[in-house]
Amino acid sequence: MRNRNLLILGGSILFLIICFFALDLIFPFPEHKLHQPVASVVKDRDGKVLRIFLPTDGARRMHADFDKISPVLKKTLLASEDQWFEFHPGINPISIVRAAFMNMAAGRVVSGASTIPMQIARMAEPKKRTLWAKSIEAFRALQLKLHHSNDELLEIYLNMLPYGGNIVGVGAASHFYFGHEPDTLSLGEAALLTTIPRGPVYYDPLRNTQQAREGRNRVMHQLSAKGVFPADEIARNMKLPLPDSIKPVPLAAPHFSRMVLERNGQATEVTTTLDSTLQQAAQEMLKTHVARLRGDDIDNAACVIIHIPSREIRALVGSADFFEKGYGGAINLADKKRSPGSTLKPFIYGLAFDQGKLVPDSFVYDIPVDYAGYSPQNYDRIYHGQVTVREALAKSLNIPAVNTLAATGVAEFIELLKKGGISTLDKSPMEYGLPLALGGCEIKLTELTNLYASLADGGKLKSFTVSSNENTVETQILSPQAAWLVLEMLSSVTRPEMNDTWMLTRDMPEAAWKTGTSFGHRDAWAVGLSGDYAIGVWVGNPDGRPRKGISGAVHGGPLLFDLLRVAAPGGKLPPPPEGSGLSEVEVCAHSRQLPGPFCTKRATIRTLAGKTRLHPCEECRQIFVDSKSGYRISGECLGRKGIKTKIIRTIPAKLTSWRAENNLEVPHLPPLAHDCGLIPSGIAPKIISPAANTPYLLRKDTPLKFQQIALKAEAGPDSGTLYWFLDGRLVSQGKFDEKLFTEVSVGEHRISVSDEIGRVDAVEFEVR
Question: Of the four listed, 181, 223, 373, 579, which is most buried by Cβ atoms within 10 Å?
Fold first, then answer.
C-alpha cells in the first residue's frame, strides 16, 4: 500500500511537471514586458549625469545593471522580501502555508506569500487580487525561475519596482531621491527603497514623512532581528533624515547631450567626453559675449573645444541659452551648416605646399583677375601687388587664395576636405568652382574645428568623438611638414585685423588662429589652436539674416581668446616635425626662385625636401647697352665697340600691367637701338581679354559701338607698342597699359597681339 501511494504521488508529480512544461511551451512568459523602455542617461567623462531623456511613456525609468547596484540594497531586499529567493523554484510552499494559517486566524489578509518572481509576474501582468490571479502568478513565477538566473531576476525586479509618481526602478529612485548612483546606497537609503514599493503613496517620503520613516525603521528592525547588519550600523542609519525633495531632471549641456543621443541611439547610458568644468566656463563666457553682441544686431554664437590628441569634444555650446525662443536657442548652431568664409584658406596653401607649388615665402600676386567672368575681390577692395604666401594668409587676401586654388585644382581640394572630415560637400567640383576658396560651401563648426586640429597633429585627421564607445578613424590629409608650415604661418605673423593688445596680455597662450567672414555678412568665424586644444567659434544670426560689418576678428576673436586662456593657459604649439622633411634653400630674394648668375640679393627659405619645385630665376638678367647712347644692344650689334654689360631686375608681366594701371613705379628696360637686328626673346605678351572660354553676348537693342570688347594683355616692359589683329585685320594698337577696345560681330573670331620685337599670342573666342 505504501509503495502504491508513493507510486501515485510520484506519478502525480511527474504529471504536474509534464503539464507545467507543456503549458510553458504553449503559454511562454511575455519577456518583452520585463524590459520596458528606459531613459537614456547621458553622463560627462567623470560619470556626472548631464541629461536624462525619458522614454515615450514619460516614466523616469533608468536602467541599473546588477553589478552597479549596492550590495547593501540586495541584502536588505532579500532579507526583507524573500530570504529563500536563492533556493525556492519561484514559489515558496512554506510561506504559502504560513500565510494561509495567519490570514485564516486573523480573519483578514495580514501576511502575503509572494516571492520576488511572483511580484515580477504581477508587475509584468497586473490583475485583480483573486485566487485565479494568484495561481497564474505562481505559474509565471515558476517560468521565470526556470528561464532566468537568480541575478537576472533580481536585476529585473530592482528595475521594475514602483517608487511613486513616474519614478520606476532603483536607478531612478536612487538618482531622484538621493542624487547619486545606486551603487553607493547607504543602509538607511536601501531600507527606504525597500519600503516605498510596498505602498508608493502611503510611504511617500515627501508627503507622508512619518509613515515613510516608520516603514523604513520597521525594515531595519527586521534586519537587526535577523542579524543581517550590525546593530550599531542599523541604529546610526535609523537617525538619518529622509529626502525632502525630488531632484530635478538635469539639463546640463543640452545641445551636446542631444548630439550624443543622435550619434549613439537610444542607449540606456552613455559616458561622454565632456569636461563639465570646461563646459560650464564656456557657457558662461559665450553667454556674456552674446549679451554684448545683441546690442550690435547679432543674435547668437556657438563654440566647440576639441582635445587634439584624443579628438574628444570636451565642451560644446550650441547657443547662448537653450531655452530662448526668439534667438534660435534650441538650435545646435555648432552642428549646423554655415558658410565658412576665409577659414579654408590655410588648407589651400597646405595643399599647394604638398604639391610642390608654393612655400610660405613664395611670391603670389594680389592683383585683379578674371576667371571666365568670376572676378574675386578682397574684403576691403584694396590690392597689394606682389606678396608672400605668409603675408597673403596673414591679411586673408582673397585673390592669392583663389589663384592658388586654381593652381592646385578644385577637385583635389575637395578631396582633401572630405578626407579631413568635412561631410557637407555634396556637390561636384564644377558646381563649387573657385568661389570655394572664399567659403562658397557650407560647413559645420564641429567639423571645421576638428579639421584645424589636424594642423597641430602632424597633418592627421582623426574623427572627433563625443562618447567613450566611439572609435576614431585616422587619415593623413597633409604631410607633417606642410601642416607645420601652415601652423607656423598662422602663429608667427602679426595679424593686422587683430587687436595688438591681445598679444601683450600676460596670460596669452602661444596660439595659431584664423578668422573668417562669409559672403553676404551672415557668418563670422574664429578658430584657434594652442596646447592640446582646438577651439572654434561661430557668431551670427540663426535665421541667416545678414549684418553688415560682421567680422570674425571683431565679433568672434575675443571669445576665441577668452576660451584659449581657460582651456590652454600657457599653451604651446608643436615643434617642427623631426627628420629631413624640411630644408633650408638659398633663393633669389627678388623672385624666390633658384638664384641665377645675375641675382645680386639672396635669401634663405624653408622648403619641403623632395617636393618643392623651384625654377631658375628669370627676373634678374644681364643686358648689353651702348656706353654712349645707353640704348640696348642685341643681335648683330654685339660686336660694336663701347658696349658694356648691365644687370637689371624685371618683374612679371602681370605685375607690370597692374602697377602701370595704378600709377606705380615699373622697371623699364633701356630703349632698343633701332639700327640693330632684333631676335625675339623674353616673355611674349599674354592675352587676358577677350577670354577664350567665355562666350560674349550681344544685345540686340544696343548699338555695336556701345558693346565693344576690351583688349588687354600682360606684357613685359620691353614689349613697346602692342598691335591687335582681329581675324587678321589690325584693329588697334597702343602700350600694354592703355585701355583699348574693338567692335565685334556675332560668330567665332581669332584675336592676336604682337609686340615691337615680334612676340605673338592669340586666342579664339565666340560672340553670340
Answer: 223
Fill in the amino acid letter for 650: T
Three-state SS for 622? Answer: strand
Q: Residue type at 741?
A: F
Angle at 473 between CA 468 and CA 479, to 5 degrees: 135
Beta strand pairing status for 269-271 and 40-43? parallel
| pLDDT higher than threshold 90 for residue 643 | no
Enclosing H/E stretch for 404:
helix 398-408
DSSP state of 333: G
The mean per-residue pLDDT over the stretch 572-577 comes to 92
Torsion of CA 52, 56, 60, 65, to 10 degrees: -80
Taking the C-alpha atoms of residue 343 and residue 677, their distance in angstroms, rounded to an integer, is 54
Separation between Cα atoms, residue 376 and residue 405, nearest integer Å = 13
End-to-end CA distance of the chain: 120
Report d(CA 125, CA 140) in Å as an integer.
10
Q: Using one digit for the tens of pLDDT, what is the confidence trace for 31-55? A: 888 888 898 999 999 999 999 998 9
- Cα separation, 18 vs 497, whole angstroms: 87
Cis peptide preceding 690, ω within 30 of 0: yes
Cβ 186 vs Cβ 240: under 8 Å? yes
Residue 711's pLDDT is 86
Distance CA 172, CA 719 (A): 86
Q: pLDDT value at position 35?
A: 87
| Residue 677 pLDDT grade (very low, low, confident, very high; cuts 50, 70, 90) | low
How far is Cα 744 from Cα 765, in angstroms, rounded to an integer?
A: 11
What are residue 42's DSSP bridge partners? Answer: 51, 270
Question: What pLDDT digit, counting tens, does each position of 105-117 carry?
Answer: 555 444 456 888 8
Residue that is written with C-alpha cell 627659405 in the block: 605
Instruction: Give the list of residues 6+ apart from residue 634 with CB closer than 8 angstroms, or none.
Output: 624, 672, 676, 678, 679, 681
The HSE-up count of residue 599 (CA atoms within 13 Å, CB side) is 18
Amino acid at site 328: G
Amino acid at 486: V
Find all residues with CB under 8 Å of 252, minimum gap 6, and list them: 44, 48, 49, 50, 51, 276, 279
Going by C-alpha positions, the residue among 643, 644, 650 that lies closest to residue 667 is: 650
Average pLDDT over residues 422-426: 95
Q: Report yes or no: 118 and 88 within 8 Å, Cβ to Cβ.
A: no
The grid cell for 257 is 547631450
Distance CA 710, CA 707 (A): 10
CA distance 137 to 145: 12
Rounded (to 5) percent helix, strand, coil in the chain: 40, 20, 40
Cα–Cα distance for residue pair 669/599, rounded to 1 Å: 17
Half-sphere exposure of 10 (CA within 13 A, CB side): 6
SS3 282: helix
Average pLDDT, the chain: 86
Across the range 222-242, mean pLDDT stands at 89
Cell for 97? 502555508
Does pLDDT of 505 surpass 50? no
- Residue 172 CA to residue 40 CA, distance in Å, equals 11
Residue 651 Rama label (left phi>0; alpha psi -120 to 50; beta): beta
CB atoms within 10 A of CB 349: 28
566/577 Cα distance (integer angstroms): 27
Q: Render pLDDT for 451-474 as a digit per residue (tens, 0 to 9).
A: 999 999 999 999 999 998 888 889
pLDDT for residue 501: 44
The number of angstroms, rounded, from the C-alpha of 684 to the middle of its chain's C-alpha atoms is 49
